[in-house]
Amino acid sequence: MSDLSNFGFVLPHWFYWGWLAIMPLIMMAWDRWSSARGVQAMDKNALANEKLQEIEAEMSKTIEGDYENWFTRIVDWISDKSGVFIAFWTVNAVVFYFFEVVMRYIFNMPTIWVHEASFLLFGMQYLLAGGFALLHGAHVRVDVIYNLLPERGRIGMDIFTSMFFFMFALALIITSWTFFQNSYSMDERTVETWGIQYWPVKAMMLLGAVLILLAGLSKLIKDIALFIKFGREQKA
């Protein structure tokens, strides 16, 4: 990397990657701690409502047990937590751009790293959010015909179209692995002055492909179980 001493404060590469790794964990731990304190401060009515919600959640789990198994529960947990994890990255972008505005318009010292750090961050968020979006039904779908079908018909269409999804997911994994290997072997860096490593971004592409494939497998397993269940109910 070239000498950056003339560019004012420049965020070290190791700090950028390290902070992205630990910052969401800190925020998630703080959120749990805050929630625990909030529960302690609740009045009796609020605690009663909390207990009622827990009972309803347990009942929901019992119902879901008909079409879920240990694999789908683990994958769904990973998909959900990974989405929460990367969501906290957005806070960094807000801080980065605030710092850039202050340095540029108050001190007349624009940075060389804020824009690049932010668009890499958003790119990795996009790559990693696929599993979370699939779990919560947030992907865009063409539903002109889909919405006209009964519930079992919609599930059946999801099962049928899943083969196209898995073709895409497998192709994405293979391509991402090739990109990552090539990038890591040459220690690829961005062409901007900051010159941060690019192979971690390619690694996130690979990880995101694996996450969305696992989320798709979980959904397919649950869809097949539900399709069979609704078929039995219709015959009964």
Record field, number of beta strands: 0
Give the N-terminus to C-terminus distance in angstroms. Answer: 70 Å
Shape: elongated
**Uncertain segments:** 59-63
Rounded to the nearest angstrom, the radius of gyration is 23 Å
Mean pLDDT over all positions: 87
Q: How many helix segments?
A: 8
Order of helices and strands: HHHHHHHH
Percent range for β-strand residues? under 5%
User: Which structural class is indicated by helix and strand composition?
Assistant: mainly alpha
List the main descriptive attributes of the protein structure presented here.
TRAP transporter small permease protein, membrane, 236 residues, mainly alpha, transmembrane transporter activity, DctQ, single chain, transmembrane
Task: Walk me through this protein's architecture.
- It is found in: Cell inner membrane.
- The complex comprises the extracytoplasmic solute receptor protein and the two transmembrane proteins.
- It is a multi-pass membrane protein.
- Belongs to the TRAP transporter small permease family.
- 75% of the residues lie in helices and 0% in strands.
- It is mainly alpha-helical and 236 residues long.
- It has a domain at 72-235.
- α3 packs across α8 (199-235), α4 runs antiparallel to α5 (114-128) and α7 runs antiparallel to α8 (199-235).
- It is elongated.
- 18% of the residues are buried.
